[in-house]
Prior knowledge:
Blueprint: H1 3-7, E1 11-14, E2 22-25, H2 27-30, H3 33-49, E3 54-58, H4 61-73, E4 77-80, E5 91-97, E6 100-106, E7 116-124, H5 128-139, E8 143-152, H6 158-164, E9 168-174
Parallel strand pairs: 3-4, 3-7, 7-8, 8-9
Antiparallel strand pairs: 1-2, 5-6
Helix pairs in contact: 3-4
Domain Phosphoribosyltransferase: 51-141
Pfam families: Pribosyltran
Keywords: Cytoplasm, Glycosyltransferase, Purine salvage, Transferase
Amino acid sequence: MTPDELKALVRTIPDFPKPGILFRDVTTLIGHGAGFAAAAGHMADRARAAGAEAIAGIEARGFIFGAAVAARLGLPFVPVRKPGKLPVPVLAMDYALEYGTDTLEVDPGAVEDGQNVVLIDDLIATGGTALAAVQLLRSAGGVVTQGLFVIDLPDLGGAERLREAGLAVDALMGFGGH
């Protein structure tokens, strides 16, 4: 399936989680077997071209796509977790949200020094979470130069923010608006 055909599988829900937002719901893409396989295939091709030695995914939907890509390529998967989910001492990174802060964590032993890690998530909006994940993976010793996303919301500027931080950004599809 082409990226345009995959885009047609993404459900748009108006006014969620608040009025004025058009929520792009990838669960309808994930729930379409051929579509999910094609999305993972497209992302795997791009990760391979970027020289990936490991795939990192951001909790939660980045786990779905990232693990599928890692399995397809036979590469290790590095979960970038929400706080308190890992049973070992972690590296942690705080980052700003629209109203407050949040934290991401990674097992420092999950990334080898100098390992080329490709970051995967379902959606890039403002880029705050992805930027924190990149910084965290780099502090663990990874070389992170490529971010792959199923959806880009270019009007929110996240992809540009990541490019300014030295990350090549690629998405299977884009949607205007919020």
